[in-house]
Amino acid sequence: MDLGRVGIWRRHQDGIGPLGEIEALGFQALWIGGSPSLDQVEPFLEQSTTLTIATGVLNVWRHEPADVAAGHARLRSAFGDRFLLGVGVGHPEATSAYKKPLTKMSEFFDGLDSADPPVPKQERVTAALGPKMLELAAQRSLGTHPYFTAPEHTRFARERAGPDALVAPEVAVVVDPDRESARRTARAYAQTYLGLRNYVGNVLRFEFTERDIANGGSDRLIDAVIPHGSPDAIAEAVRAHLDVGADHVCLQALGDPAKLLDDYRGLARVLL
After folding, report:
1. Count of domains in the chain?
2. What percent of the chain stands above pLDDT 70?
């Protein structure tokens, strides 16, 4: 499958949206977030013609691997290589069953491998942040789909996953030339993630400190994780991920839903 260099990320809860216009702009991949099921992803495939649709990601605590494998086979039969299965363990605050995430992910892969038909390694990708999960992602899937990360993590992901794995980070962006307004939008979005242990722990692996996490996130952290400004400024930040090892970057535009298509038009002009 061909994801292209730059795609789009959106939650399934936000609806299908103008898929035809997104395709016409030249984006080749749409990642569906919000822990979707395969049934919730199918309408995106039905109402598009060229986009690769990926789950970003299906939560392994909520689904049985045999059921996922059966759904994967059905979608691949109907839509060919336009479907990519993304799976992940989510975060501890999301489920009371959360424990030994690396073991859980390995067992889920075992279930996908033993299903009839199985899900081939090259047709699945893994949400991974830490070093051991990144290594598992490279060993047992096409690669990794990190979330809420700066370019320093992308460099780290490439080093841990190796040269042949897919590295496809999600990058939330705010198309707004007013720096303070853009930071307010970015901080409102970041508030949830700065309260989740796995995302905070990942941020602290790099040059950020507890002081950067406090009070909604320092300007330094917000600017690194959530690029904002003009489309040209955001394109520079996207290229920073590509330059240090990303194969593909999927953009989640934040802000007024009525303006998001205009935002993607501006980003397409400078990135595609």
Report:
1. 1
2. 100
